Amino acid sequence: MIPELSNPCVFMRDPQRVQDVLRSMERAGSNTVQVISDFDMTLTRFKYNGQRCPTCHNILDNSKLISSECKGQLKELLNTYYPIEIDSSRSIEEKLPLMVEWWTKAHELLVQQEIKKDLLAVVVEESDAMLRDGYEFFFKHLHEHTIPLLIFSAGIGDILEEVIRQAGVFYPNVKVFSNYMHFDESGVLRAFKGVLIHIYNKREGALLNTGHFQELRTRPNVLLLGDSLGDLTMADGVQDMENILKIGFLNDKVEERKQSYLDSYDIVLVTDETMEVPNAILRYLTGNK
User: Fold this and answer.
1) Is residue 43 a contact partner of residue 132, using CB atoms and an 8 Å limit?
2) 233: which DSSP letter?
3) Distances, alpha carbon 73 to alpha carbons 54, 96, 250, 278, in Å
4) Is residue 144 within a helix (H) or strand (E), and if so which, with residue range?
5) In the 8-state DSSP scheme, what is residue 196?
6) Has this prediction a pTM greater than 0.85?
7) 8 A C-beta contact, residue 199 and residue 176
8) Which of 203-207, 247-251, 279-283 is predicted with the least confidence, judged by mean pLDDT?
9) Beta strands in 8-161 (DSSP E)
10) How far apart are CA 225 and CA 43, in angstroms?
11) Per-residue pLDDT tens for 61-88?
């Protein structure tokens, strides 16, 4: 049906169910589809030439806007909390307060740096941020077929938007839910706006934004893309959902996490740095077989 689903990086617990969902979505038509995606390490690459690629937070953390003392403190936080985030032996309930603690401390450190808004574009330009291979087709095809793309990120919205703007793919059908910076009248970072979005409260974020999903109630078929088990709840705000196909990028700690991803996602892409499979699915759903 979709040859790319036979790629060696593709794993499925129930290939028949995947086929059934895809057929059902294709029959309903692409005007009933919406895409909900995580950003860091889902739409962006995890590695390039053996080197880790930066997340939205990393782009800022590694930039010249941050003092070396602050960089050290942020690295310390990463070394403390990232192993907890990816520890498959801990429950989400156990991780949750620790993730909030991490994000809150990191944001407090960034606020202390008095970052200037007009320097963010330069920081992104100078960074090693990379969208996955095939991103141009992904964004352009969704735009051409007026399929809404909601990017749901625990990163920094201002940086995320700048990455897709500089890549030339910030089309009008793209909406971003993320952590946004609050700048004072002279353009200096003073706080982060609203409720903190972290890796494990995307469900609450989805439910807080019911207006967005209300507008899309004629699109009950969802393609969800994520790279962590916390991303699975991003579509919980969707009303009267008919079908959902969940695609998970498994980038790191593959052997110990593979089973939990197979149990949770319909399609698991193991160490695949491309958008080849999502793009093939989009082509199928829009009749470009």
Assistant:
1) yes
2) G
3) 17, 21, 28, 37
4) helix 135-144
5) P
6) yes
7) no
8) 203-207
9) 10-11, 33-37, 47-48, 51-52, 149-156
10) 8
11) 999 999 999 999 999 999 999 899 888 8
Burial of 150 (0-12, 13-18, 19+ CB in 10 A): buried
Which residues are known to be catalytic?
Answer: 38, 40
Q: What is the pLDDT of residue 122?
A: 96
- Whether the CB-CB separation of 243 and 219 falls below 8 Å is answered with no
Return mean pLDDT, the chain: 93
The per-residue DSSP string of 84-95 comes to: HHT-TTS-HHHH
CB 191 within 8 A of CB 182: yes
Region of 265 on the Ramachandran plot (φ > 0 left; ψ -120 to 50 alpha; else beta) = beta
Q: Are strands 267-270 and 243-250 parallel, antiparallel or unpaired?
A: parallel
Provide CB contacts within 8 A for 52, sequence distance 6+: 46
Dist. CA 66–CA 109, nearest whole Å: 9
Contact, 124 vs 59, CB < 8 A?
yes
**What are 44's two structure tokens?**
């962006």
The gap between the terminal CA atoms of the chain, to the nearest Å, is 9
